[in-house]
Amino acid sequence: MPASIPRVSPFTQAVVQAIRKLYPEKLADSSFDNTGLLLEAPYRQQHLKNSVLLTVDLTKAVADEAISRGDSVIVAYHPIIFRPLKSLTQANSQQHSLLRLAQEGISVYSPHTAVDAAGLNEWLADIVTCSNEASKTTVHERSVITPIKDAPEGFEGAGYGKIVRFRHPQKLGEIIDRITSGLVLPGLNVAVPQSVTAGKYQIKISSIGICAGSGSMLNGLDVDLLFTGELSHHEALAAIERGKCVITTFHSNTERLYLISSMQNKLFPEIRRQIDASNKAGTWEKDLTLDFQIDTSRVDRDPFEMVTSPWKNW
């Protein structure tokens, strides 16, 4: 008799369907990215809660957190499996985490660049334009840097990166304030042309190129300011040599708050719809609760921390 195929948790299926609805995999940049259900763990009935843990990076600390909480699914923005694996061993910390999660029955889904195209860069554009505060919104126009061809229905116009063009130039200092406030950061990395020797706060910005995470796609863009998570030393030098300004936050700091302020709020009602549809269709497990929860990781953070004098807490 052939061995039976392990079942997948009905709740995990509902979560995956919800994410694919909000952030279709067709929006991801398949030229390099690895998105989707990266770890489909066997279902251990009544072993885990109907709960989702959102994180930017799936580190050992996050895996420990999910296991201790009894989560069913981890939604990790960055794919923990990025390049093809030739083996799964205990010696590699990421592979060790995957093995432990599989053993516990915890699945892992990564939406990555599908999120970039379906909302993350738009959210960053809202921050620099104060669009979340009606009384402070600045008049501007937006466009996508790299549109997606044949985007799914409902996502027409989606793409990678954003350009914001203000009707009236904005002070660089004001934009810095908006970003530090919107991303809840103590400071930013700012580069301005070396020809600017005084009055940096008087620099006016008419256009901004925006890219969450790594901002290499902004190189050569005809805008006044490049706003991204990170640029290399030489990319930043090249930008200011062309008269551009640069703001970086460290890679994942352009991404993390989006999980709390946007993704979590969008995901909850969509998972609710998927569960209700499954229950109505009779495919929901009889004794499995219809209740669930979504939380963001308490231990997920950028590997870099900004430390300023007088070195408090160090």
TrEMBL record:
<dbReference type="GO" id="GO:0046872">
    <property type="term" value="F:metal ion binding"/>
</dbReference>
<dbReference type="GO" id="GO:0005739">
    <property type="term" value="C:mitochondrion"/>
</dbReference>
<dbReference type="InterPro" id="IPR002678">
    <property type="entry name" value="DUF34/NIF3"/>
</dbReference>
<dbReference type="Pfam" id="PF01784">
    <property type="entry name" value="DUF34_NIF3"/>
</dbReference>
<feature type="binding site">
    <location>
        <position position="78"/>
    </location>
    <ligand>
        <name>a divalent metal cation</name>
    </ligand>
</feature>
<feature type="binding site">
    <location>
        <position position="116"/>
    </location>
    <ligand>
        <name>a divalent metal cation</name>
    </ligand>
</feature>
<protein>
    <submittedName>
        <fullName>NGG1p interacting factor 3</fullName>
    </submittedName>
</protein>
<keyword id="KW-0479">Metal-binding</keyword>
<dbReference type="InterPro" id="IPR036069">
    <property type="entry name" value="DUF34/NIF3_sf"/>
</dbReference>
<feature type="binding site">
    <location>
        <position position="255"/>
    </location>
    <ligand>
        <name>a divalent metal cation</name>
    </ligand>
</feature>
<feature type="binding site">
    <location>
        <position position="251"/>
    </location>
    <ligand>
        <name>a divalent metal cation</name>
    </ligand>
</feature>
<comment type="similarity">
    <text>Belongs to the GTP cyclohydrolase I type 2/NIF3 family.</text>
</comment>
